[in-house]
Amino acid sequence: MGIVLILGIAYLFSNNKKRINYRLVVSGIGLQIIIALLVFKVPPVSRFFQALGHGMQHLEHFARQGASFVYGGIITQQPDGTMGNYIGGGFVFAFNVTATIILVCALVAIFYHFGIMQRIVAVIARAMNFIMRVSGAEALSNVASAFVGQVEAQVMIRPYLQGMTRSELLASMSGSLACIAGGILVVYANMGAAAGLDLAPKLITASLMAAPGALVISKIVFPETEESQTMGKVKLEVKSNYTNVIDAVSHGASDGFKIAMNVIAMLIGFIAVIAVLDALLTWTGHLFNPDFDLTLNYIFSKCFYPVAWAMGVPTSDVNSVATLLGQKLSINEFVAFQNLTNKTVPVLTDKGLLIVSIAICGFANFSSVGMQIGGIGELAPGRRTDLAKLGLKALLCGTLASYLSATIAGILI
C-alpha cells in the first residue's frame, strides 16, 4: 500500500503522464529491491555493511584525537556518569559533530585528489546507466550524492549543467535531496551508536537506495521529452583541483568546518524557533481546552499518520514515526535524528526503527531547496530560473524517494 501511495502521489503531480517511461520505473524499483535484498538477506553482504558501519564508528574516535587537542581542557560528563576531561570520552554534540565532519571531508578530499572517488562514482553510474537507461549526467549526479554533499555532487557534472534538460536537472536535484553526504551519514551513525542503536547499515542502505529511487520518482513527475547530450555515455572529469595532498587536506578540513558550523547554526536557530512556535501553539490550545497541549509534534503526528501507516510502520510506532517525518521535511533531518536517537520521540520496534531511519535519511527539506538553487545557480548562472521553478518539485521527489526506499526495506525484513 505504501508503494502504491508513493507512486500514486508522484503520478498525480506528473506534468506529462503519457510520456512516463515505465521501463525506467520498473528497473529502478527492481534495483532498489536488489540492494535491499543484498544488504538484509545475504549474510556476507550484511556482514560487510556491519563491518563498514563499525568502521564508520571508529572515525569518531579518530576525529576525537584532533578535537582533544582543541577541547581537551573542557570538563564534560563521562560515559560512567562522572565528570572529567573531554579527552576521557565525554560527548558534547558541537565538539564531536564538528570534528567528525571535518575528518570525513578531509578524507573525501584526499580520495578526490587521487581520483579514487571519481572512479568509484563512475563505475556505479555506468551500472545505473546500463540498467535504468538514464543519461550519464543524471546517473553521475545521483550516485555522487551518496558520497558527497548536495552541491558538491553537482560540481562533478559541472560541464553538463548548462546543457542539461529540465528533466535531467530535476533528477539531479532530487537525487541530492534524497541522499545524504558521507560526513553527515557518519555523524548520524555515531549518534545512533551513542544511544545503543545500530543505524550505520540502515543509513548506508538508505543512501544507496536513494539514487535509483530519486530517478524513478523524478522521471514520473517530469518525464524526459527533450534530447539529452549525455544519453548512453558516462564521462567524468578525474582531474584534481588540489595541488597536492596537503592542499587537499587543508581544503577538505576548511570545507568541513563550514558545513559543521552551518549545521550547528541551523540547529540552534531551528530548535529555538520551534520552542517559540510550540509555546504559541500551546497557549492557543489552552484557550479552547486547558488540558490540550497543541504542539508542532502533535500536528506532525496527525498530518503524516496516513503516510507512516501505509509505509508499514507497526501500530505502536505510527505516531512517533509520523512526527519524525514531519520534523525532517518541515525543519531538517538533524532535528529528526536527534529526537530519534535521544528518545525524545521514541520508536519501540525494530521495523519502525528501520523504516524511519531510511525515510529521514536525506536532505529533503525546505532550507535545502534554497541551498540547491543558490549552489547550483553559482555553477550554472543561466539555469537559475529553471532551478527556481523546479525547487519544490525536487523537494517532493526527494521526499517520496526516501519514503519509497523505506517502504521497500520494511517489506523485506
UniProtKB/TrEMBL annotation:
Residues 95-193 form the Nucleoside transporter/FeoB GTPase Gate domain. InterPro entries: C_nuclsd_transpt, CNT_C_dom, CNT_N_dom, Gate_dom. It is found in: Cell membrane. Its main location: membrane. Residues 203-410 form the Concentrative nucleoside transporter C-terminal domain. It comes from the Bacteria. Signal peptide: none annotated. It is a multi-pass membrane protein. Residues 1-73 form the Concentrative nucleoside transporter N-terminal domain. Keywords: Cell membrane, Membrane, Transmembrane, Transmembrane helix. The chain crosses the membrane at residues 20-40, 86-112, 169-191, 203-222, 259-283, 352-373, 394-412. GO terms for molecular function: nucleoside transmembrane transporter activity; symporter activity. Pfam families: Gate (PF07670), Nucleos_tra2_C (PF07662), Nucleos_tra2_N (PF01773). One of its GO terms (cellular component) is plasma membrane. Belongs to the concentrative nucleoside transporter (CNT) (TC 2.A.41) family. This is Nucleoside transporter. The gene is yeiM.
